[in-house]
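@channel sequence for tomorrow's demo:
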Amino acid sequence: MSWQIEKALDELVSQETGAVVYPFGTRRAMAICYPNTYDVAMSNLGMQIIYREVNGREDWLCERAFLPDKDLMKVFEKTGEPLVSLENRRPLSDFEILGFSVSFEMDYFNVPSILEMGRIPVLAADRGDDDTLVVMGGPVAFFNPEPLSPFIDVVLVGEGEGFIHAFLDAYGKAKEQNLGRHDLLRYLAQHVPGVYVPSLYRHEYDEDGHLLRIVPEEGIPAKVERQWRELTQPAETVIATPNTEFGAMYLIEIARGCGRHCRFCMAGYCYRRPRVRPLEYVKSAVLRGKELGKKIGLMGAAISDYPYIDELVTFIRNQGMGFSCASLRADSITPTIVKGLAESGQKTITLAPEAGSKRMRDIINKGITEEHLLKSIDLATEAGIRHVRMYIMVGLPMETDADIEGIVDMTRRVQEHMKAIGNTSRITLSINPFIPKPLTPFQWMAMTDKKVVEKRLAFLKKALKDKQIELLIEPLRSAYIQGVLSRGDRRVGQVLAKACEYGGVKGWKRAAKELHFNIDGFLYDQRPLDAVLPWDTLDPGLVPTYLTDELKKAEAGDYTVPCFDGCRRCHICGG
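structure tokens (generated this afternoon):
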């Protein structure tokens, strides 16, 4: 192995606490890969949880692999050496299973590259009986794995903590029977709930290229049910390292799922039902983080909705520790939370109204009012947190120019209110184009035309030109690529493979043009409510009419109340 590669990997390992290394060859071997660089991958709690679960078994070992950063990639390209695991430095092709944990669409471009670098046949159809089994999990597996299906043998549809054990047990039994690859895949699909094998399902299209039907092989279930579990297992940092996007922070998941029913939010639907971890467990996790001298990072879809949040914050501060969290819901923020954040050194309060007008917030079921925003800013300012960041989306379904003007009006009212209470700090608007997501009420909606979004963003830049207001806008190019990847079918995988030949993301348009791929069709076509969708094989557990009912409520601007005990509306918690 090149000394540059060895040195770079040694430097990463030397700063870690908690990694497990077994002698290679003493157990069955699985590699897990988050398809991005080390610092991004090690910020992902899901990958670390699977690493812990597999290494906790007596029959398997699990090692990690990552996309090399730019400097290290040049070394790999120069030497031609295969991509190796971090622990035992084994080529990925030496592992029986390579598991990808995929969270974001733009990481799709890295999957074919990693397979090629790891000496594994890039296309699933080209793999033989002795080749590594390529498995995918993570949020992408919950809502639409089809764009990656040409590269993936098995998709694990659901939450992985307990699910991974059933899968590995079944895999071991299948290998004991010396099954060939096709029979192995059939065995897994038939014996493990939540296993989806794309190659066992035929997608048929009409003459216009629309998906007509999905046909499973005989004996293979037509639907694959998403697997979820109660929060009985730890979900906290397994391998501590300062080399993450969060720095030296000890991550603890305090809740999973969200019952607020925001109609644009994929996480709110694919992680139902909403669950919280017992306070005493979270306190124990905080103490484990304290032993490592780490700041606590609280993870969850809506941190301020955690029912014991004030008690938890008080406990963390009484331990002499700081904490951090992502955006807060303005209607559930408390003085204890903002005081604790201020004492932890946080300078910015992050709120997510998502839209400027009440009409638009009603359509997306956000449930946040301007009064909630202003009250939150009052609490933050009083605690010493003066900088305000707000998340906003542009291009939402049924959006009009008046709704864009509403963003300006809301921002100006927030600014005036801040001045009135003696806060002259900056307001930051983090603006993202809306991307329709599968398995949400907006899954059928067209993405707003790029030229319209450009016009509306230009209006916002001009109307909010103010040294005290900062606009951070996601590049439209990547947003509209995500729009295709999010709701694309398995034909998108052909474009991904070709794009990787041309350098990844930068080769996207060239690849689509060469393959005569209709990008605009995936972005701008309004899909009929009875259309066959690429992800229809996946069963999230919702009653069939739930998403269409929510879409109708969005069109009417009707509010859906949050989940509550005994609720039976969507049927995930019971019929």
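heads up for whoever presents: The chain has a mean pLDDT of 96.
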